[in-house]
Specification:
Shape: globular
Strand content: 35-45%
Structural class: mainly beta
Strand order of the largest sheet: 3-7-6
Distance between the termini: 22 Å
Radius of gyration: 13 Å
Number of strands: 7
Number of helices: 0
């Protein structure tokens, strides 16, 4: 996503032993757009209702983090 320069190798996910994949990512406050790369295909986050159009004619998922000091 925009928080890691869209580097597909920066935050690899790992399977948690079930059907979920996880990654720990330190994301600073602000507006961030992201997608998941699944088996070579970009996909939006099905758990994220917020989206924004991207320059490729599709949508990105959007994460807004406030600077609450926590």
């Amino acid at each position: 996503g925009s928080f890691n320069g869209w580097d597909v190798t920066a935050n690899p996910m790992r399977q948690n032993g079930h059907e979920l994949y996880l990654a720990d990512v330190a994301v600073p406050p602000g507006h961030h757009e992201y997608k998941f790369l699944v088996n070579g295909q970009w996909q939006t986050d099905p758990a994220c209702a917020a989206g924004a159009p991207n320059p490729f004619g599709s949508m990105n998922s959007v994460l807004e983090l406030s600077d609450s000091g926590r």
